[in-house]
Amino acid sequence: MQSRQIHLVRRPSGVPVAEDFALVERALPEPEAGEVEVEGLLLSVDPYMRPRLNSDQPLDEAMLGTGIGRVVRSRDAGIAEGTLVRHGAGMRDRFVVAAAALRPLVRDPDVPLSVYMHALGATGLTAYGGLFEIGALQDGEQVVVSTAGGAVGSVAAQIAKLKGCHVVGITGSDDKVAWLREQAGIDTAINYRTQDLAAALAEATPAGIDVYSENVGGAHLDAVLPRMNVRGRIPLCGMISTYNGAGEGVRNLSEMIYRRVRMQGFVSTDLVPLTERFVADMTGWLKAGHVKYQETILDGFDRAPEALIGLFDGRNAGKMLVRLAD
């Protein structure tokens, strides 16, 4: 039995290209006691992967990453064959791993499996915890969300709207603007590629900004800071404008001083204690139709590099996923 893997074969210069990656086959070992063999079903593709390619991701090894799979052989009494699991085994279509490294996935039959990779997965938890735990969101506040058409931003914008907030989303295409207004139901959406961002924000936030969900940095952050209200909060989960080595610096950080703005970085694993409450709330919102989502799914394991590259030119609507099997 073979395991197909996506390897990084050279460090990208700027935006990654297909030649930076290779599809490699490796022999799959037999599971030993306490181990299981997993067939991959879905792979998550996320912007955070890009900075890792500079140094953290070893060359000529399976790319780091997370996904959902199915146990097809088990030598551990605690996990049965056929069990759906979350994994962090990276970009491999089949692998053998210690059963203890997996998290069984308890799926609501009324929710598609793919949703557990975004709205009910790490990106959904990032949006939820970023607003409530890091951003200390209160009902009725003034909220701005960057990358509002993406996996984190689209959920954050809708959660804020559910809490009675005035919500402005920033995105990069007219199609995403239309979806945010017509489907997600937020108050205003701005296309930063075709509009003057600072002027559009000033018009859209007459009462200022209490919470800014930040995933971009650079010119976005520069435009937002002068609009922040006193004691505003900025939960910071990404800086996508800098990931490919380019991007503009932030000139307005001094605005944080007299506005007493708090900006705090965080990652989704910080929010694990919120998981039970998050899953209950989000499952209810999804099933009631209060939270809508978009997902871009590329079929075929070999398309994983294409999916990652596509994140940086806006080819995804919502969450980017690669489907390996049903």
UniProtKB/TrEMBL annotation:
Gene Ontology MF terms in the entry: oxidoreductase activity
Claim: ATP-binding is one of the keywords in the record: no
InterPro entries the record matches: ADH-like_C, ADH_N_2, ER, GroES-like_sf, MDR_fam, NAD(P)-bd_dom_sf
Record-annotated Enoyl reductase (ER) domain positions: 16-322
CDD domains tied to this protein: PGDH
Keywords annotated in UniProt: Oxidoreductase
Record-listed E.C. numbers: 1.-.-.-
Keyword Oxidoreductase: yes
Protein name: NADP-dependent oxidoreductase
